[in-house]
Amino acid sequence: MERKVLLAETQPELGSALRKAFGMTPADVAFEVRDAKLQGRGGAGFPAGVKWVLAGGASGDRKYVVCNADEGEPGTFKDRVLLEKYADRLIEGMALGGYAIGSDQGYIYLRAEYPYLVPVIEKAAAAMRAKNLLGANILGSGFSFDIEIRMGAGAYICGEETALLESMEGRRGEPRNKPPFPVNAGYLNKPTIVNNVETFCAVPHIVLNGADWFIGLGEGGDSGTKLFSISGDVERPGVYELAMGSTIGELLELAGARDVQAVQVGGASGRTIKRGDTARVLSFRDLPPGGSVIVFDNSRNMLEVLENFMEFFVHESCGQCTPCREGNTRLLHAITALREGDVCCQECLQPFMDLCDVMAVSSKCGLGQTAGNCFRDMVSGFVELPVDCNCEGGDS
Fold first, then answer.
1. pLDDT digit string (tens) for 240-293?
2. How far apart are CA 69 and CA 46, in angstroms?
3. Topology, domain 304-382
4. In the chain, is it the N or the C terminus that has fewer CB atoms within a 10 Å radius of its CB?
5. Given this model, what pLDDT does residue 396 score?
6. Distances (CA, A) of 97 to 9, 296, 337
7. Which fold has domain 225-297?
8. What is the C-alpha separation between 106 and 327, in angstroms, rounded?
9. Domain ranges (residues) in the chain
């Protein structure tokens, strides 16, 4: 089978996508991104073009473009690489978003631990202003757009788009109630699109080559390509680009994963699979393609791995809603109970599995809704318990 084209191999001339876009209507640019089926590359997977179309049609005297560069998911470092190497491509993608929705101002919300990237981004922006690709009257089109950098607050929860907007406005990073959605009432209560670094970087390619071309880069009906940060017990950790819909086995082979016990796919809140599941695909219809892939070999104690993840969730929960705040603490306590034998059978374990389900349907944002994934997968897949050991059972 012919190898798929990768975006890293097809870097167009900077500004060429803007030149083409200025020959299109703003709505046509938004429709092109929508038709390309570009799903948010930060992990949530919401169609980027749908956001753009909705924000373009929303009422507002000002509109904003926000890049979520708050890369806080454990094991994820792909956006850092994009910012280091392709900051100008990101900015062009944001400018295309501004043109599509009618915004003249963009913000890059940068992870607090990435201050060294500020001069990199500022240098790229200055070079684009010098070429009239950013700032006032870009390429004589009458369209103006510029960007600013806003430093993150060092909180995992600010990766959620409404918590990010709260932080940008100077408040504690806590998710907002929805509706209204950011496309109608986002930054400063104005229509706003919030997209990930990788999402914006894909947009110039889509505008230049068309929606059908981008769809054709994927596998099995999935659209485009995807970057994956792979780390842990592998010979060649790093960032790899694969066609969306590729198997996890293909990625593990590229990274040199040999003695595989488990693979955490999609970050701490993703899914944990066993060695025998390598035929599963990296796609929004199967394994979460958020970007983080952590490999654990047979020397790892998976209960200790789980404890590390649950401590992370307890620490990073904003505490705003009870299911997440209390639920994560209870799941962390359950790990101690498993280790000490107080949870000794499936009957004892069941209340905690039920708690994972409750958190998934009642938490306010994605943190609480998905935090139970690793508990459910790791306990059921790597901790052996009898169905019934004649104990009293129930929540210990």
1. 999 999 999 999 999 999 999 999 999 888 999 999 899 999 999 899 888 899
2. 17
3. de novo design (two linked rop proteins) (1.20.1440)
4. N
5. 43
6. 23, 39, 50
7. Ubiquitin-like (UB roll) (3.10.20)
8. 37
9. 7-215, 225-297, 304-382
